[in-house]
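Tokens for chain A. Residues wanted.
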């Protein structure tokens, strides 16, 4: 039997290991584009749903590889990305400890599915109330002093997927470009849809963020990779010591039982193999296990992605892009894709 290798077990890079507050992982930081990329206004993040994994074949183009010119298999994650609907605009101005919201400009007739997520929409836009008093106007947003950033308030459309849900998830979409261009773009996009092809392109790098699979309350052997004691030991699945006498406390670095999984996790520099709306290319016979068949546009990302099936996956432009030759392939064969 091979040696058990769990390098991420007990990692000090993630603390505290508590359950995530919500199942939708949202990005706190969005990179600032430089040069010509920042001149035009472009959405910088998106939200999709994890469908499963598959693999594709391609010709290895890494000249330093021992398998240069040969066919190689690439494991891929399939993320279904129905379009996001823009139902509002939110402005931000700087504050001593971050950004504060100046106000929201909301859509007059939002999607009926959105009322299931935000019940106040039904009250705000009812006939008895005056929409001019309850809704923040776009003109007042433009006149807000020290306005520094504009974001789009969007919701997903899970009814266009095969997960069997209708209640949408909410996300703030960040924009590139100057403030004046952001205002014009946001005003034009209010009530319209954003496609995943507007955010990412093929052969580009993206970062993904999701809430990992929940494992519940686990002991130190499974949670932190502690070695099991010898048979004659009084205790087997515990650590030998929880620390010294002084300082008279249990340090946070000591492995302890507790929550495992259902944490926010971010993975950097996932390469986009394909962005397409031709779902028949990847749909296996009978659909993906515990998900169903794809009905909307999808992404093929190299490697695995954190999170359970049907869980929302946050996608953004790369924070620290670093090209690798690991998946430098051409002539991708989608006809041989299998789930």
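Reply:
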């Amino acid at each position: 039997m091979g040696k058990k290798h769990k390098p991420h077990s007990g990692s000090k890079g993630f603390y505290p290991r508590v359950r995530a507050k919500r199942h939708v992982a949202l990005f706190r930081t969005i990179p600032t584009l430089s040069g010509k990329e920042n001149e035009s206004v472009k959405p910088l993040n998106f939200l999709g749903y994890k469908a499963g994994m598959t693999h594709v074949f391609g010709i290895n183009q890494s000249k330093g590889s021992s398998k240069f010119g040969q066919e190689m298999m690439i494991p891929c994650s399939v993320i279904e990305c129905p379009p996001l609907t823009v139902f509002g605009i939110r402005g931000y101005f700087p504050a001593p400890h971050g950004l504060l919201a100046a106000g929201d400009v909301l859509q007059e007739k939002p999607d009926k599915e959105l009322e299931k997520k935000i019940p106040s929409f039904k009250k705000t836009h009812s006939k008895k109330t005056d929409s001019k008093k309850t809704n923040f106007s776009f003109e007042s947003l433009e006149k807000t002093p020290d306005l520094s950033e504009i974001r789009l308030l969007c919701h997903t459309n899970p009814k266009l997927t095969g997960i069997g849900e209708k209640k949408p998830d909410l996300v703030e979409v960040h924009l590139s470009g100057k403030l004046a261009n952001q205002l014009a773009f946001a005003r034009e996009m209010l009530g319209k849809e954003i496609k995943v092809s507007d955010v990412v392109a093929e052969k580009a790098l993206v970062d993904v963020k999701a809430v990992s699979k929940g494992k519940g309350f686990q002991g130190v052997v499974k949670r932190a990779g502690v070695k099991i004691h010898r048979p004659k030991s009084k205790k087997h699945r515990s650590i030998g010591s929880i620390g010294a006498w002084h300082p008279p406390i249990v340090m946070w670095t000591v492995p302890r039982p507790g929550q495992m999984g259902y944490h926010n996790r971010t993975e950097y520099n996932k390469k986009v193999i394909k962005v397409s709306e031709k779902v028949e290319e990847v749909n296996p016979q009978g659909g993906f296990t515990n998900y169903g068949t794809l009905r909307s546009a999808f992404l093929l990302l190299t490697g695995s992605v954190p999170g359970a099936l049907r869980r929302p996956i946050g996608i953004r432009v790369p924070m620290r892009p670093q090209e690798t030759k690991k998946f430098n392939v051409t002539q991708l064969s989608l006809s041989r894709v299998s789930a």
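Helices lie at 114-117, 120-124, 131-134, 138-142, 179-189, 220-224. The radius of gyration is 24 Å.
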